[in-house]
Amino acid sequence: MSEQTRRTINSYPTYREAERAVDHLSDQGFPIERVAIVGQELQLVEQLIGRLGYGEAALHGAASGALPGALIGWIFGLLNWLDPVVSGLVLALYGLVFGAVVGALFGLLLHTAQGGRRDFTSVRTLQPSRYDVVADEEVADEAARLLAGLDGRATARRRTEPRKRGRRPQTGRASD
């Protein structure tokens, strides 16, 4: 199986717009399996969500230790390695508690060892700055023709929308 050469048909600032373009191609009966949406110019965005003190570090550690502890306890209960009378659920509960305690202690130890560095919590995501709709070279001209009709209708719709109070419509011309 050889890799197909692909060509960019159009670029969009949001994924929703790129998805709308691909949906339009699908609605027109275009062979959609020959199209892809490619995020370009990735940026790492780290959104800070709060401070991380000793209590939060212990809580995060307890949460990360509880599940593995419960799973290990449950497996011991299923395999009856300790006592055949003790059920898997009781051992899972014991494992959950033990895992939470060990995780909390480990979380506190790590937070203390960092000495105040990185004393915040965050969520990291990768965000593209644009989304390219690409198609196989053999069908790229047809895809471009179909998308030209969609983009032309979107531009005409933006120009005919009524003006909102206090804002002028964006037409892309410097003279406005």
Structure overview:
This protein is of the alpha+beta class and 176 residues long. The chain is 49% helix and 23% strand. The chain contains four helices and three strands. The chain has a three-stranded antiparallel sheet. Helix 2 (54-79) packs antiparallel against helix 3 (88-114). The chain is elongated, with a radius of gyration of 28 Å.
Salient structural properties:
about 180 residues, alpha+beta, 3-stranded antiparallel beta sheet, 4 helices, disordered C terminus
Distance between the first and last residues' Cα: 52 Å
Summarize the amount of helix as a percent range.
40-55%
What percentage of amino acids are in beta strands?
15-25%
In angstroms, what is the radius of gyration?
Answer: 28 Å
Largest sheet geometry? 3 strands, antiparallel
Number of strands: 3
Overall 3D shape? elongated
Task: Describe the strand arrangement of the main beta sheet, using strand numbers.
Answer: 1-3-2
- Average pLDDT confidence is 78
- Order of helical and strand elements: EHEHHEH
Annotation field: number of helices: 4
Low-confidence stretches: 155-176
**Helix/strand/pairing category:** alpha+beta
